[in-house]
Design brief:
Keywords: ATP-binding, Cell membrane, Kinase, Membrane, Nucleotide-binding, Phosphoprotein, Transferase, Transmembrane, Transmembrane helix, Two-component regulatory system. It catalyses: ATP + protein L-histidine = ADP + protein N-phospho-L-histidine. It is found in: Cell membrane. This protein is an alpha+beta fold. About 50% of the residues lie in helices and about 20% in strands. It contains 19 helices and 17 strands. The chain has a five-stranded mixed sheet with strand order 2-1-5-4-3. Strands 11-13-14-16-15 form a five-stranded mixed sheet. Strands 7-6-9-8 form a four-stranded antiparallel sheet. β13 and β14 form a beta hairpin. α2 runs antiparallel to α4 and α14 packs antiparallel against α15.
């Protein structure tokens, strides 16, 4: 049988050699591949250089622009904060004046109130609004209604535009229902103040500083006796805000809610939103003690205008470099391709079975060394291929036959002993059944020397083995087969299931009973058999040694036998895996490929029971 396999393998080798000598497949010459690889490397070099040069330049311009703009914004912010602090300074003149506090909170009608207003309050308010060069409107709201109100008529116009510098003194009840007054935060002496656009400030382009008036001499400084409002022009407060960063730039001041308080520039915020913020470089500078921020939007097109020059220069340099490399590549690829082509022609003749051609190169370089090696190799390659190929096939056949010959003979001895006992005690029916099963088992095992048998015969062999063992163990052994009928269309290596069934009966007993389940199903293009028992199981150390195919583990002998035969026949992806837990049982999984059946069936159990001879099958 081994000789016939070797002869068939050699015939397949000759047929493949003859097929290789047919029309040559189309391929791309080495010179073209070398040329294309050089061109590709050149293009990658040029593109990468251009991209990096452009990216570095644009990134440098952006960073430089950002630093310049940020420095300018910081200067603008400092000027704005200075003017805001100047307004706060004006409010401090009233906020910290104890005399103003005592005059405004004292409830005295008549001459005292008149004196307070004319002799002290009006001069004080007048000195406050004259202490700055900017237009300012001061309003003081009082809880004390014994003092008279002082106000002017502005004809429904901007108080700052109408009067320039003026002050009013009104009762607090005029603003008691205003949301900006009701939502004013709790008082922290000397700290609590807010800049807001209230009433018609937004309409007139104004902004107001709001502060409570509390008694600095009082123990509880949370008690207020009035409210103060200082209104200034946004254009004067933010006079230094100027978008001098280039064409199309915009600078704006936003509050904590994202609302724009002031904006200057060629592009308003609405037009920036329409064009898309991704087209602008946005730089932000926050205020120190407020939730405001100074925002500058600069068109990226203006920032990166010089990058176009870099792109053009990069394209020119890249094109020149590409043409130069192309000429050099053409020469080199032609030089090497000629030599490689000669080597390919000789090797191609070897592929077609002709080992008579030789190759020579002048000089003492790598190509001459290659030619000498090829010439030396051609002297021995034909005979070497035959020897190695035949030897490898013989070795594989010998390994398969050696592994198959290692089936444990103790089973035969034990069965014959059981038959002798049955004959001695006159149990003819059981004796007949055991002899029939033994005959079927060994007929399926021998299988006329064939290694491959149908799946159906392998299952019959396993059932015959278990039927023999049932005579010995009677009702102590319980077996269940769950086999997918679709598996009967395939074939497999023989004697795969029996060694695991033998291991169960030898090592798995716990108590006086054992249950075995043999399951088979198809998973994709593979067949999976599982042999499951409820026996004593294995310790993790024993399972590890068996799974690693440790030669020192007695129970692993049959497992190694099966696993090696499966690997030798089908390859590494297939074989045996084991899962076991002490006190619960063991599950053995055997995975084989789905190979359509070509092997003939061996006579079935029914034919043997009918008394047919093997040669009649």
């Amino acid at each position: 049988m081994a000789n016939s396999r070797i002869r068939s393998a050699l015939r397949r080798f000759r047929r493949s050699s003859a097929a290789a000598s047919g029309p040559e497949a189309r391929y791309m010459p080495f010179g073209y591949k070398l040329m294309l690889s050089y061109m590709l490397l050149t293009l990658v070099h040029v593109i990468l250089f251009g991209y990096l040069a452009n990216w570095i330049f644009v990134d440098s311009v952006r960073k430089q622009t950002s630093e310049n703009v940020r420095a300018a914004l910081r200067q603008m912010k400092d000027n704005i904060e200075y003017r805001m602090k100047d307004t706060v300074r004006l409010s401090d003149m009233i906020y910290y004046d104890e005399t103003v506090a005592s005059r405004l909170r004292r409830l005295n009608e008549g001459y005292y109130g008149y004196e307070s207003v004319t002799q002290y309050l009006e001069p004080k308010f007048d000195s406050v609004i004259k202490a700055t060069n900017h237009r300012i409107w001061l309003v003081v709201y009082l809880r004390n209604e014994t003092l008279p109100e002082i106000y002017s008529f502005y004809n429904d116009s901007d108080p700052l535009a109408y009067a320039g510098k003026s002050y009013n003194m009104l009762y607090l009840k005029r603003i008691a229902d205003k949301s900006w007054y009701q939502d004013f935060p709790p008082e922290r002496y000397g700290v609590t103040m807010q800049w807001q656009q209230i009433d018609r400030d937004a309409e007139f382009g104004n902004i107001s500083l709001l502060r409570r008036l509390v008694d600095p001499a009082s123990f509880n400084r949370q008690l207020d006796f009035g409210f103060m409002r200082l209104t200034v022009k946004l254009t004067e407060m933010f006079e230094t805000v100027s978008p001098d960063f280039g064409e199309g730039t915009s600078v704006r001041i936003e509050d904590g809610k994202g609302q724009i308080l002031f904006e200057r520039g060629a592009w308003t915020n609405d037009r920036i939103a329409q064009a898309g913020e991704s087209h602008y470089l946005t730089i932000t500078e926050p205020f120190q003690d407020l939730d405001w921020k100074l925002v500058a939007s600069i068109p990226k097109e203006w920032v990166e205008k010089d990058a176009k020059k870099v792109k053009v220069l990069t394209a020119v340099i890249g094109s020149a470099s590409f043409l130069l490399f192309l000429c050099v590549n053409g020469f080199l690829s032609r030089y090497f391709s000629k030599r490689v082509s000669r080597i390919v022609r000789v090797l191609d003749s070897f592929r077609h079975g002709s080992f008579h051609k030789r190759i020579r190169f002048k000089g003492r370089d790598e190509f001459s060394t290659i030619s000498q090696s090829i010439n030396a190799m051609a002297e021995h390659i034909d005979g070497l291929i035959q020897q190695v190929y035949v030897a490898s096939i013989k070795k594989k056949e010998a390994e398969l036959e050696s592994l198959q010959a290692q089936i444990n003979p103790h089973f035969l001895y034990n069965t014959l002993s059981s038959i002798s006992l049955l004959a001695k005690f006159g149990q003819v029916e059981q004796l007949h059944r055991m002899v029939s099963n033994l005959a079927l088992f060994y007929r399926l095992s021998l299988n006329e020397g064939r290694t491959i048998i149908p799946v159906a015969n392998e299952l019959e062999q396993a059932k015959a083995y278990l039927d023999i063992q049932k005579v010995k163990y009677t009702d102590r052994l319980d077996v269940l087969f769950e086999i997918d009928p679709d598996l009967l269309r395939y074939e497999m290596v023989k004697l795969i299931l029996q060694p695991f069934l033998e291991n169960v009966l030898k090592h798995a007993w716990t108590g006086d009973r054992v249950h075995i389940r043999v399951a088979g199903r198809r998973i994709g293009d593979d067949i999976e058999f599982r042999i499951i028992d409820d026996g004593v199981g294995m310790t993790p150390d024993t399972l590890r040694r068996i799974s690693q195919l440790d030669d020192g583990e007695e129970a692993g002998y049959g497992i190694r036998n099966v696993h090696q035969r499966i690997e030798l026949h089908y390859g590494k992806p297939y074989g045996v895996s084991i899962y076991s837990k002490l006190g619960i049982g063991t599950s053995v999984t055997i995975r084989l490929p789905c190979v359509p059946r070509t092997a003939p069936y061996v006579s079935s159990r029914a034919e043997l029971d009918a008394g047919r001879r093997p040669e009649e099958a």
